[in-house]
Every structure is written in structure tokens, then in C-alpha cells.
Amino acid sequence: MRERRKQLMGAAGAIALTAGVVSVATGAQAAPSPTASVVINEVYGGGGNTGATYKNDFVELVNTGTAPVKLDGWSVQYASSTGTSFQATGLKGTLPAGATYVVREGAGAGGTTEVPYDVDGSIAMAAGAGKVALVSAAQPLPSCTIKTGTNPCSALPQVVDFVGFGSAANDYAGTGPTATTSATSGASRKAAPAPVNTADNKADFALAAPSPTACGDACTPAPTGPRTATIAEVQGPGATSPLVGETVAVEGVVTAAYPTGGFNGFFLQTQGTGPEPRTDGASDGVYVFQPGTLSPEAVVGNFVKVTGRVSEFGGLTEISTTASDVVDAGSEFSPVQALTTGWPTSDSARESIEGMLFQPTGAYTVTNTFGTNQYGEVGLAVGTTPLLQNTEVAKPGSAESAAVVADNAKRLVTLDDGSSTNFTASSYSASTCGARPVPCLLNADKTPAYVSTTKPVRVGAPATFTAPVVVDYRFNLWRFQPTAQVVGPDNATSPVTFANTRTAAPDEKDLSQLGTPDLKVASFNVLNYFTDLGDADPSCVAYYDRDSSGDTVRDGCDRRGAWDAADLARQTEKEVSAINALDADVVGLMEVENSAQFGHSRDETLSRLVAALNAKAGAGTWAFVPSSTDLPPTSQQDFITTAMIYKPATVMRVDRSRALGEQSGDGQAFVNAREPIAQTFKKKTGKGDKFLFVVNHFKSKGSAGPFPGDQDSGDGQGASVTSRILQAQALRDWVPGVAAEYGAKAIVMAGDYNSYTMEDPLDVLYKAGYTDVGSTFDPGRYSYSFSGLSGSLDHILVNEAGLRMSTGADHWNINSGESVALEYSRYNYHSTDFHDPGPYRSSDHDPVVLGLKAFVK
């Protein structure tokens, strides 16, 4: 359950207001400077942790100048040690010269002492390392790079002060971050005797026991009683309420209520408002946070009066109250109407309708299903297409690439389920888990919303809203909340329906655009298909299901994939369903176990997969291409490998299999990737031209390789772009010689290149004369979905002769857009069984299929 901060308590340590001129906050201050008046004095992220004295995290400010400084409109912001997304807590009041000011943040289960504070936030900070910024604006900092990048967060002009705390922080002021903090120590600015400020975190801060001292009434005088206000006055025209910290009394109509699911509250809207928003930028809706049993008056359609304290929770303006402070306001009121305007394209316009009833109109498309399994949420894109990886359709670093990023931001909104339940949360607590030696899933008796095997929610599917929602902002995302919690698997109160876009097989029309194909080839990443299982190695650590039984290997060993025989059986039946349904004659596979690493024949796992395929398709339907003798020593090979299978009845192998086995040593192109393999084929019966089929699996984007430029530069290509460029160059130089050796004019290169279509590694091959058949014959469809963005990492590239053989191509979208809940690795996570033996979510990549004529035209 998402933690909420404690109710307001009286601030301690009041300091008399210093006489003199009040300094007004502006956004013109440069990034961290030794001359700044107000700076960060102490950072503590261990609040509530085991061993902590204080219950909450906090950030303390100090005014080192000689005049008071007005903090209204400023914020304290936090990001993780390596993150680029900041959460903000708004500030208010005036900080006297020499005084300190405490921003209290998220609470934990430990600690015994309340943190005195001037502003109450809710950000959960890390105990050991993170980044804190004092910002002369309320809006969260935009996405920015690390200290060594071209646009570090610490150098943004609105940043007044910046502290990277802990050695893992990748941004900081000066020469380095502070020492690593803990549950018992924060980063405290040195005093000699005045606070030391050289704008260098490493030099200015030392570890010390946390010692928050709040300013109290001298900074933010306590109100004398509830202030009667309208909801619009509470919201104000900006991102932060102008009434933060004040107790108000407001009236409105309940538009949504959540007595279950952890939200602990309801939405309230000014009577008679809608279907148009206000013109002054203030919203007529607000969230009312009411912990414990929800007030009996908090029923959708009721007109109520609420008395409570105004605060900002992760960017959402809300009123915190108790059940007794929610009372009937009478039966004489004007009902509200849902807004019918289109989804706003800017944060400021969205702020103007935050908390209001909204009826989405026009086209919406599913763009993200990864979080559905964990949080019961679905990412949506306004329009008829999902959001795109910028480097899928534009050159890295180009203006066109930036335009894609901007378009994504304008079109994204998340459909939530009206709850804060983490459906995959786990615990090691003996009292919770019954003394099990492995974790237990805390919400195993529940089922996330919007997951189904018969009514699937898939990336690219149209979404139709049948009921209004409420505009909400939580966890750095704008959201549509249903007016009541949606509970799976029935999803009875869902405000939206989704089209079922599944297909039973690749699209024959796409494959036959230039004539009926004589053969089909395909590329398919089979998601760590291993037959050496996790439970056979005591060093392996599993991901566990609701019965604390392993599903798949997590870490601790070299094995990957299925944990035990039952898991392998579930994975196998899905892979077999998918591969047989491809109806391809030759299939290139990625992420198959390299069995030589476990003391077996290198092709042991591949042979077992082929046996399973033949058990379903008929004896002899499939065969595998044996591993090449060109491969390097096993010590230079990966634990996964590329492989080929084919149908002996329709195609025949020409001579031996080949591999690029001379580029796998230190400093060579394939030191961190799988060696390309190749085999020449031709049609089995009748006449036909030879074609060389090559299978590739380049270095992933997730970690940096050994070459200069392998660090993520922020241009959208991820890490290890130099590695992938070198691999593309080596492939380019190797393949023509193999094709010439066997007299094959046509070259077909398939695989997981870990590169989106417009990225630099693929550009190496385009310039060498190769064409990507996926984007040529099947534009607008993609093989992969990551962070709600669609693109193709899987490609089939052909040379000029191969293009003349090609009849069409299809991305068979059976995996990337499906909820991960359907994957074998998430078996038995929920009270509903989502396992199905069919092809859907057999992997995280979609297969790509190419039709070929037997002859080069």
C-alpha cells in the first residue's frame, strides 16, 4: 500500500522574525552558488528505517543571509541517486535571516520521534543516496542528465541549491557528493561557526546525527480557525495550492469515492460546474484524503461540507480531514457535469482540471500494459497510435527525435484502477509470511484490474470510454481514475472497454504484398529458454509466486529462465504454440541456452525445443542447424546463444553452418554479444536460388560495454551504442564473404539487434545496402514495448537481391503488447490463474516474419 504522511502536528523551535527587507523569491538565481542566501542545511533519508530515531525523512534549509527570504512558490525536490524524475514539495512563508526551515517528507514504520516541520511533504527518500534540489519554482525539474552530461540537473537556472548525498549520487554541486548516509546519520552542512557554503557537496557536508530545527510561527504563522473557501481558491491557478498548510471549509459534490483499495478518500467538485473548465486556470475539483473508515456521507452524488488541512501529496492538491469533518451540506444543490473537452496537451492546462469529472471523447489507444500486473493501471495515448520510441522514427539527437518526445508527453495519460494496491508486493517478514524462508506475496488473494486472457488489454488496441473518470495526478503521472475502484478479474466498474486485436497467425496479406511467398523466414527472441533449471543450482535465487514457489531465475547464478520442470513445461507449451503458428520454413532464435556452458552438448537445449515442436507438429516437421565449428572457445561464449530451426520438407541446407567466431576476445566487437551464425538454404523441391540466412543478437542497451562511447549519452540509444556499432560493422564485413563462398546472391539477416530502426548501428547496415523489411512492408507496427513506448528491436534485413525475393513482412504482435501477467514467469501470482498454453506473451519480443519467392527476380 502506498504510504501516506502523518497528520499535521505543531511545529517546534519558533524563531523571531528578523527585522529588515524581505527578499522575494525569483527564478533568476543561478545554480548552486557560494553567495546564495537560502541553502540546504541538512538532508536525511533514513526516517522510519530500522534503527532510526525519527519517523520521517526531512530536508532542512537555512538562511545564511542578512535579510528574510520569502519562500512562496519555491519547492524542495527529490530524485533517486541515478534518477532523472523529480518529486516536489511546495514551500511557503518567509524564512528569517539565520533561521532554519524543515520540510518533512515520507514516513517509515520505524522511529520513535516526530520530525518538527514547517511544510509537510510525502516524498519517500532513500536512506543512503539520492539527490535534493532547492528550486525557485513549484514545478518539478524537467528530465535532465548526470553531472558529466550536457544538461545536469544541478546546473539548471531555477536550482538555488543542490545536494547529491551518498557516493552513488550521479549529480551534485561541486566536485562530488556527500558521504553515504544511513538510518542514523544525515548529511549536515558544516558550521565554522557559520554554515559553510563553497557550493561543493563533498567539501561542505559531513555525516551527523539528524537534528531538525523548524522555524515555526515565525515562518508560517498558524491560522486561527478554518477558512471558508471555494474549491477553486484551494486549487489556485498554479501547480501548488496557495493555501497549503491552512485549514479550510469547502462544499462540493462527491464525484468519486474509494472506501477500499488504499486511496482512503474521495473527489469533491464545486456544485453546478462542467462541462467546460474555468477560464482562470483554477480547478473546481479536489481530492479529499480521509484515512480510516470513509465517512458515510462520502457517497457519489452527495453534497457535502469538508473541513480539513490543505496539502500537496506528490503534486496532487488535497484536503486532509477526518470522518467527523465531512458533513451533509443539504439537498439543495446543482449537480456537476463531466468535462467534455479534449485531453489537454500541457501540464498547466491539466492542472486547471485536476480533480474534476471528465468524459474522454475521441480516440484513445493502449500504449503501456507493463504496470497492469503490478498496479492495475494501463497507459493510454490520445489518438489512434501508441507512443513511440523517438529513435524508432527519427535520428538520435535530431530535432525530429525531440519532437517525438514532446508529442509523447502531450498524448500520455494513465488509466488507473482507483486503488493503491501493489499486486506483486512481497515481504520477508516471518510474522507475515509464516516463517517461510523465501518471500511471500502480500496481495496474492487479489487480482489486478484490466488483465484477461479472453478480453485482453493490448498495446495498440483502441480504448472506448463508456463512463466519466476523474482527472488525477499521482506518482509523476496524470491519470484517469474511475469513480469507484475497479476490481479484477470481473472489472465490473471499468469506465472503458478495449478492442481485442489478437490474431491467430501472422497476416498473410502483409506477407503477400508482392505475390504469394514460396517460403517464409522469421526472427524470434524466445525469452531465455533454458533447460538447465534454477532449482538444480543452490546458488540460484528465484522470483517466487503466491505459494512461495519459484517461477523463474532472478539472480545468483548463470542459469536463466524457468525455475523448475513445471515452469519449463509452461514456458515450452507457449513457445511451441508461437513457433508452430508462425508457419515459417526457417526461424532464427535468440536467447536459447548455450548448453555447453553447463557441461552438455552446445545444442542440447535447442534439440529439446525441436523435440517439443515435433511432438505437436508431427515427427520430423522441424530440425535444427547444428552449431558451427567456427565458434570461439566456450569460455568466450555467452550463456545464451543464437540458433536456427527449419522445416526439412520445404527447405534444404547447403553445406555447413558458419559463425563469426574470430571477434569474441577482449577488445573485439563480440566480446559482449552473441556471435552471428549463418546457414545457406534453398527451396527443397523444384528450382530456386540460394539465400544466406544470418541470425544476430547484439549487445543490449541496459549496461555499458568496454568501448569509448558505451556510456548512455542521453540521445535515446541507451548504453553500449559503440559496442553495437562495432558489431554491425563486423557483421557487414563478414557476411558477403560467406555468401560468396556458397554462391548465395540473396542475404537475409534476422535477429534482435537491440537497436531501434533509426539508430546508428542499423545505419551501418543501411549504408552497406541492406533494407529493413519490417519498416518497409509493415510500417506503423513494431516488435517491442518498453516504458510505454513502441519500437522495433527485432529486424530482418535483406540485401538488394534479398529484397527482390521478398513478398512482404509482418510483425506478429503476440507478446510485447500483452500484459506480463500472462507470461509463464508470473504464473500463480494472483488469485486468478492467467496461464494459457497459447502463443500470447510467450516472450517479451514479437516475431517478425518475411515472405520470400524461390528466385531472385
UniProtKB/TrEMBL annotation:
<dbReference type="InterPro" id="IPR047971">
    <property type="entry name" value="ExeM-like"/>
</dbReference>
<protein>
    <recommendedName>
        <fullName>LTD domain-containing protein</fullName>
    </recommendedName>
</protein>
<feature type="domain" description="LTD">
    <location>
        <begin position="26"/>
        <end position="167"/>
    </location>
</feature>
<feature type="compositionally biased region" description="Low complexity">
    <location>
        <begin position="176"/>
        <end position="192"/>
    </location>
</feature>
<dbReference type="InterPro" id="IPR036691">
    <property type="entry name" value="Endo/exonu/phosph_ase_sf"/>
</dbReference>
<feature type="signal peptide">
    <location>
        <begin position="1"/>
        <end position="30"/>
    </location>
</feature>
<keyword id="KW-0732">Signal</keyword>
<dbReference type="InterPro" id="IPR001322">
    <property type="entry name" value="Lamin_tail_dom"/>
</dbReference>
<dbReference type="InterPro" id="IPR036415">
    <property type="entry name" value="Lamin_tail_dom_sf"/>
</dbReference>
<feature type="region of interest" description="Disordered">
    <location>
        <begin position="176"/>
        <end position="195"/>
    </location>
</feature>
<dbReference type="Pfam" id="PF00932">
    <property type="entry name" value="LTD"/>
</dbReference>
